Orotidine 5'-phosphate decarboxylase (Neobacillus rhizosphaerae), 238 residues
Amino acid sequence: MDNSLIIALDFANRSEVARFLEPFGDRELFLKVGMELFYQEGPSIVQLLKEKGHQIFLDLKLHDIPNTVFGAMKGLAQLECDLVNVHAAGGKEMMQAALEGLSAGTASGRKRPNCIAVTQLTSTSQEQMNKEQLIPITLNESVLHYASLAKDAGLDGVVCSAWESVSIHDNTGNSFITVCPGIRMESDHVGDQKRVATPEFARNAGVSAIVVGRAITRSADPANSYEQWMEAWKGVHQ
Ligand SMILES: O=c1ccn([C@@H]2O[C@H](COP(=O)(O)O)[C@@H](O)[C@H]2O)c(=O)[nH]1
């Protein structure tokens, strides 16, 4: 997990994924399969990508009653992904059920996937949280609260913005994973993201892994773009 750059495969189907991955050749990557791709292609897309040696973050953000999340995670565990997630807003009991489901579905002798909780989506602003979610505290406080809840539930880390990573690590310890989307180069379009940060900022904030989607997937030269992102993220020439 440490210092990974996870590419968000926000594509509609496997043909688009194959076209995107073609220029990377045999390079083994850390790939995120989210709702768009999974709902179209189902579990077989995960199996296909794993057979090619890629690590997988299955980003389905489960949020339901504990019993349902238990059953869903038990099934998802059989895909043997590296990382899965839930929404912390589902509560501590739901997060514990997610872990129990993962353990129940993981074959004996295998390590269960890491499980992390979304705190506040990186597309959420302070104003939106206060006015729409009616949470009358600062966004940073809300993120820290959800991170503590996730830690108490036994989860391995959280999804947050790079801006919150230092305070989360201060509160929960450095081994608690912070996975951060909303990463942009200075010149990139922010789009629908609200809490954005550059890869350099994320590195200096001790972020465990960054998630990069459109800046790479919509690039005219994705393999070259990936190299540039890796340089910016790691701070060295690969
Ligand atoms: O809080 C969150 C949780 C998940 N995401 C996901 O990350 C990528 C970001 O894509 P970009 O194109 O780099 O903006 C996308 O798949 C989201 O579903 C997030 O952005 N924020």
Summary: Residues 142 and 212 are 24 Å apart (CA to CA). The longest strand covers residues 55-62. The chain has one domain: 4-234. The pocket of LLZGTKA7 is lined by residues 8, 10, 34, 118, 121-122, 159, 181-182, 193, 211-215 (CB under 6 Å).
